[in-house]
Amino acid sequence: MSRVLRLENLKAFYVLEAWGEKKVIQAVNNVTLEIPSNEVYGIAGESGCGKSTLLRTLFADIEPPLYVFSGRIHYRVDDHDIDVLSLKSAEKRKLRWTYISYIPQGSMSVFNPVKRIKSTFLDFLEDHVRGKVRENLLSLSVEHLRRVGLPPNVLDVYPHQLSGGMRQRVAIALATLLRPTVILADEPTTALDVVAQRAVLELLREVHHELGNTIVLVTHDMGIHAQITTRMAIMYAGRVVEEGPTKAIFASPLHPYTQYLIQALPHIGEKKPKEGIPGSPPSLLSPPLGCPFHPRCVFAFSLCREKVPSLEEFVPQHKVACFSRQRGECVFEGEKMRRYESKNMDDYRERG
Amino acid sequence: MTATEELLQIERVTKVFTVGSFFFKTRINAVENVSFGIKPAEIFTLAGESGCGKSTIAKIILGFEEKTAGEIVFENESIAHWREKRQLFIQKVQAVFQNPFESFNPLCAVDDIFFETVYNFHLVQNEKEAIPFIDERLKAVGLSFSEIHSRYPSELSGGQLQRASIARALLTNPSLLVADEPVSMVDASLRMSIVNLFARLREEMNLSVLYITHDLATAYYVSDRIAVMFRGNIVEMGPVEEVLLNPRHPYTQLLRDSIPEANPHRKWKGSVRVANVEEEEYLQKGCKFAGRCSLAEERCRVDFPQETLVDGVLVRCHRYN
Fold first, then answer.
1. Do A280 and B49 make contact, defined as CB atoms within 8 angstroms?
2. Within an 8 Å CB–CB cutoff, is residue A275 touching chain B?
């Protein structure tokens, strides 16, 4: 399996200094992650678990107060690994939008409110495409908009005239204009209602099929992950606690946190009582010693309070960072587990 | 005014907003002839996409927004009468808002607003009585006074703060809670605890809840009846099982099919159409959904459909007339 992005033991912390007091927010804490090519890769987790910061580090957009304390970020460009942190900003700039692009959260604040959409597109193209005249660039945008199913007349309107769903689709069109290999999307649908959300996600999926590229999708909504991602990572308190194929994670979550998260999802047509996870997520200012989930975990034992579990492969392709799982203790019913293992193996054989 | 069994009755309420500049004014019916009732100890969901007028209704009920036409009856008395005894009205009707970080003053400790509420409503005489009183309500939502005492909103998590804002609403012993998107800012792992809380408060305190949301899955989980709104109109209303398991209006069907179901084996089929410009849909003649409806006929674009009762569900669609 080829990969496009790789993080190695990355520690990216926010350092805040106020009145001589130093605060360190451990937003991305020792994350090792490989993002394969040609996948819709999901990153799930609650607000404040560091998932947006992880995406920022993937985009190599590291500016104070965010500092990288250790680790590496690699992009795979033309079969070579590039260590992004060692690049100069001009070189990073060259990779942006052509190799890696970014769809931000609120499309309202992305476009200049006093300029027509057209001028945003032109600004963008004039900066990144050399040796073409204005008319050519404009026809390029029109063609691209048509390809993603948007009427070309959106170029002539102001951002506020578009509905939220349309605006987010235009933002996606802008991010995919130069056919990047990797698209990072940070909660692209949070401000949208369900119908517009579905349209935006379908567009992302179409773009993925057409370009055969990788989309990294950050959202807290497990339903979205189930619908469009093929592989996903679960983050908790700055760490990746589980990583694997989406189907396997939903069929049999390995980490107790993921188990809770999936159990608690309401479904239409089901009224049986469901419980939220007791307690609340830890602060990233002072995460608990040991496994960050241990204060809320029913399976926690002494080792969990002392050491941080590392992310290890538990079944092929499916990794988990949990001591009790690795010791084989936090098992749901044995029957379900056996079924899961045999089923998962079939899935992998299919995928080759 | 005839006595009804409804706690709150909304009768043909309309709200018109004028948009545009001085010369190019457009009148938009944000809420158009909306009627529904909430029974005592009932959880009633008002669902729909953003900009469908559901929050406007909440604002009209709470008195933050003036209605253009129509009548609202609370406990068999018109809202106009309640205006004269506003204090009593707010005591009986309390609100919970979307973003708990905005509902609390960031410069005041969280418990300040609790004390303010109990003194303003003369619920207690002094601080000695106030603390156990507040503590009792906080316990009902799974918090305690010591947890919020002299803590600032930024020191609490979103879920804790949202539960605190529900506890604050409960201080006055209300009979109706207007909850405007109470879980959309709350994390998935804590969302169910808020929704479960509404169900428990209904059991224990006979509280009615107007639950405004776009999350149909939690609506199904917790509520008794649901009204689905589209561009200012209720397009379908009835028991939640009927409406969500067997949607009749094409818009409800679209809404149901668009929920990202948390099951990777059941993915979306086909594709959906979105509105380009919201204003156009509001101003559309006939059925406002006609522009996006795959079943739309000629009459849908001309005549505004009337409400029809189909198996106990009110549907506003020409196909059922």
1. no
2. yes
